[in-house]
Amino acid sequence: MSKIFVDACFGKETPYTPVWMMRQAGRYLPEYMKVRAEAGNFLNLCHDPKRAAEVTIQPLDIVGVDAAILFSDILVIPDEMGMDLEFIKGEGPKFNDPLSTQEDLDRLLGGEEAASKLTYVYETIELLREQLDARGDEKALIGFTGAPWTLATYMIEGQGTKTYNICKKMMYSNPELLHKILRKVTEVVKLYMEKQIQAGIDVVQIFDSWAAAIEPGKYDEFSWSYMVEIAEYLKEKYPHIPVIMFPKGIPAFLDKVYGNFDVFGVDWSTPMSLAKEKLGDKYVLQGNMEPCRLYSKEATTHCVEVIQETMGTKRHIFNLGHGILPDVPVENAIHFVKECQRVSKK
After folding, report:
1. Is 154 a catalytic residue?
2. 171: pLDDT confidence band, cut at 50, 70 and 90?
3. Residue 77: CATH number of its domain
4. What pLDDT sits at residue 1?
5. Which of 55, 59, 164, 312 has the fewest Cβ atoms nearer than 10 Å?
6. Does the annotation list 269 as a binding residue?
C-alpha cells in the first residue's frame, strides 16, 4: 500500500504536501499527559510498549498529521550502552557518570550487545505496525535516532549544555578519544536503526540537535561524516526506506552537504529559499516553520503560504523547524496541519 508520506520522501507526486511535527506526541496534548501520568514518569513511558504506542498514534487522530513518529527518546541508546540516565523534573536528562577517559568508554557496551538491549523500542514498533496496518489509513511510521555527535555531547557533558565546553575541550585537546566515542556510538546506532526497520518502521530520521555547536570547518569531521555513514549503511541494505537528515542550525554548511539519503530537514533559522537553491535538486526538503508561530493562527497561515510559494507542490514535506512547544494550544496545531493541506492540495 502506497503511503503519501513515503512517496513524498522519494519526490513522487502526491495529492497534497504531507505534514507532521517534531515532538507531535508530547506535552501540548492533554491525552498524552494523561498516559504519561499513568506511566509514572517519562522514562517509564519510553519503556512501556503499549503506552508508547498509544501516545505515538494520538497525533494522527487528534491533530491529523500524515505520519506518526515513534515515541521514544534519543538517550535510550547511551542508557542501554550502560550509562546511568535519569530525567530530573524541571532540569531534563542527566547522566550521573559522564565520559572523560578511555576507561569510561571501555566499560560501555557496543554494537550488537547494546542494540539488542533496546527490545522495548522494537516491541513498540511491532505493536504500532500492527495497529497502523489494522487501521488501513496509509499513515507512515517514522523511526529515529540522535546523531552520534548529539548523543556524544550528552554522554560527555552529562546533561544539556549551552556552551558545550567539556566536549569541545575534548574535540581540540583529545580528538582521538572523541572519535573513539563517536565510532562506538555510530556502530550501535547503525544496528539500532536496522532493528527499527526490521520491526516495521517506514522512514528513518537522524536528529543532530546540537549541530550548531561545531564550527563549520570541523562539522564534517565530527558529525556529518558519521551521519552519512549511518545513512549509507541503511540505504545500501534497505533502499525502500527513506532516510531524513535533520542537522539543526547549519545554514552556513549547506554547500557542504553530501551523502546518500532522501530528505534534508531544514530548521527554522535557515531560509527555505536558500535550502531550495543549495539542495533542492539533490534532496526532498522538509520544514521549516518557526515553532513559536503556532501561538498565532494568523502567523501560522502566513508562514505556511510563504513556504508553499517557495516550494510549490513538489519535493517538499511540511514540518516545523524544530519541536512543537508544550504550551501550544491543540487547536493551533490542528490549524497548522489543515493549512498545510489546504495550500498544497492539487
Report:
1. yes
2. very high
3. 3.20.20.210
4. 53
5. 312
6. no
